Amino acid sequence: MATTIKNTDKAMIPEPALRRLPWYLAYVTLLDERGIEYVSSTAISRELNVDASQIAKDLSFLNIKGKTRIGYEVKRLCHELQEFLGFKRRHNAVVLGVGSLGGSLIHDSGLGNYGLNIVAGFDINPDIVGKTACGVPILDISSLETTISKLNVEVGIITLPVDHAQEGADRLIQAGIKALWNFTPYRIRAPRGIVITNTSIYAHLAVMYNRLEAQKRIDDNA
Amino acid sequence: MATTIKNTDKAMIPEPALRRLPWYLAYVTLLDERGIEYVSSTAISRELNVDASQIAKDLSFLNIKGKTRIGYEVKRLCHELQEFLGFKRRHNAVVLGVGSLGGSLIHDSGLGNYGLNIVAGFDINPDIVGKTACGVPILDISSLETTISKLNVEVGIITLPVDHAQEGADRLIQAGIKALWNFTPYRIRAPRGIVITNTSIYAHLAVMYNRLEAQKRIDDNA
Question: What value of ipTM does the predicted structure carry?
């Protein structure tokens, strides 16, 4: 079946642009809280150090137009960005592996403000199964499949030990999960049509340490 | 002063290669735990879905050579990767803003295995200042400067509300911090020579939601 893809079609937006939109949202939310009514792409550019024409291009994917000399209406821009980014819609999620990192994510209530609704955690550790963490039930892994289908879960968050990451992912997909948010440093594989987002915070640490050492050498040689 | 930069100089490694090294580490650690002694770049390639010649090139930055037909010694490769990535060195860090996300990071003891040693959290909330979280003291922001110089802190983790992110960063830099790990969606600016690593987990969520919606449209039209 043929589909017409419009300029505003969300599938068309390139990932770098998509990653910049939350920066704009953070900034315009701040402006809104300060009671500011209009903002130009030039002003956003100055504040965020992104080229103004790039900002205008990124925002052209949204259902909003800036006015000459005045710019974008701040409240409207906040709203459109949140809608576009999906932060206003509720996405049910489960956490697979409630160890230190998994527990931390359940603990981070801020995720709820960005549309992520963690409905359950799963583990095999008898010390925590049957308990709750910040109101979220921690269940035995054996009830994974029934929970996912019953609660209409879309996102599976993988915070398992590395050697169980792939097995866990396979099980989530089998149970009907459409998106995996992988926090392990393991490269999970999945069939076509399953969305995988890798957030490798340890890789970020590696980059930071490396740049820190390089900077130290520059400072030492200065 | 002139410096000779060797091929093994860590400053030379491009960021994409640096980001792949923790994947290799995760995999070879697994092999080591399973008692496997040697691994070829072809075997790593099959498992991680990265081109074998790319892996060999990435590993050439390390102080290790693979042997023809046998490959890399697993134990040695683990060790060299950990050394190279800085995960074996201790980097003292403070968390600025012990809200939901800041508290989660303090809670994530896994970071310690990757060389990050959180020595204190800072906040202004009188309900939590003076307490400890997972053994880490939460101090009033007024003692930021003395703590940083006394404990030789290198890394400042920023988990403040967006509208305090820049101000917090400025204060950390003023106190002598060399690297900022920014978890806010705000684009922090810093003078040359300060390392900034942005981990925008909400931007990752935005990308995931967007891909999920796009996939739904594809499925609906199939």
Answer: 0.87
